[in-house]
Amino acid sequence: MNEGIPVRAPAAVSADDTILPFEVAALDLRGRVARLGPAVDEILSGHDYPAPVAKLLGEAIVLGVLLGSALKFDGRFILQTQSDGPVYMLVVDFVTPDRVRACARFDRSRVREAIAAGAADADALLGRGHLAMTIDQGTHMSRYQGLVPLEGGGLEAAAHEYFLRSEQIPTRVRLAVAEEFRAGRSGHTHRWRAGGMLLQFLPQAAERMRGPDLDPGDAPAGTAPHALAEDDAWVEGRSLVATVEDLELIDPDLSAERLLYRLFHERGVRVFNSAGIRAQCSCSRHNVEAMLKSFSQDDRDHMVENGVISVTCEFCSRTYVFDPTEVASPV
Predict the structure, then answer these.
(1) What's the gap between Cα 188 and its chain centre?
(2) How do 319-322 and 144-150 pair as beta strands?
(3) Domain presence at residue 174
(4) What is the rounded CA–CA span in Å between residue 240 and residue 54?
(5) pLDDT for position 1
(6) Would you say residue 66 lies in a domain?
(7) What are residue 33's DSSP bridge partners?
(8) CA within 20 to 30 Å of 94's CA: 1, 292, 298, 315, which one?
(9) Rounded CA gap, 28 and 31, in Å?
(10) Number of domains in the chain
(11) Does some domain include residue 266?
(12) Are 140 and 102 within one domain?
C-alpha cells in the first residue's frame, strides 16, 4: 500500500446511480464500476418494452455510462446500434457530467417470435450490423466516431472489439441487467437494476501493452496468425473480472467497494470519489417548437390531426401538443 493513501474498510452500503473509478496499481489496472437503480428503472419503465428488449437497452445504458463518464470535457457520448435483428436500433445519449437518456426501436412481432422460439438473447435480438460510438465536443469541434461490427456475442463482445481495433487498449467489460421483484405490504413491487464494470490495462511502459497484429484481411491462405504473449498482470486482471457474476454487479446489498475488495484485495485496490448519474431527457416544449418551425408550412399542415400537432419524444415518451397557429410561419 502506498504511503499517504488513506486506508479504510470498503463501504457496506451500495450507492445506486453512481460511477466508482478505481485503480489496482500493482497490476497497472484502472477501471470503473457502474451501479444503476432508479435512473435505469425510470428509462426502461417509461416505455412499453418487452422484457428482453428492456434488458438489452439496459445493457446499452450501462455501457454508455461506463464510456461516457470517462470524458474529461463538456460534451456528449452517443452509443448507437443499427442492425438487421428484431431490435434494429438502440440509442444511448450521455451528456457530461451525469445525464443519460436512451431508447430502442424494434419490430414487436419479430421480438414475440424470438421469445416464443426461446431465442431472445442479445445476439439474436441484435442480429448483424454495427455499433457506433460518437464523441461530440460541441458545435465548434469535430466529432469523433468509431465503428465496430455486431457479429454475435452481444454488446460486451462489441465493446472488446472496439477497444482492440480503435483504442488498442487491453480492455474487459462486464454488463448485467435484471428485474427486481420484492414483496411488500401493498403487494409486489417491480423495478429494473443494472450494473457494469470496465477494466483496462494501462502500464507506463508502452511495450507492455503490445498485442498481436490484427488480421489484415488479405493474408494468403494458411498464414499463421501473429501471436504475442499477454502481460502476466493483464492476464491476472482479466481473469479476475471474468469471475464476476451478474448478481454481484446489481446486488443492492453488495456495494461496489466490497465487490472490488473481493476481486483485488490481495493486490490492493484504491477507489476514487464516485460520481452521480441521473436520467434526464433534453427535450423541452421550446426545443420541439423550434423543430416544428424549421419545417415548411406544407409539412406542418400534414402533421395536423384532430386540429392539433402532437409530438412524442422517443426518449422519455413525453407528448407535446401544439395548436397549428403556435408554429405557423409568420405572414
Answers:
(1) 28
(2) unpaired
(3) yes
(4) 28
(5) 46
(6) yes
(7) 20, 197
(8) 292
(9) 10
(10) 2
(11) yes
(12) yes
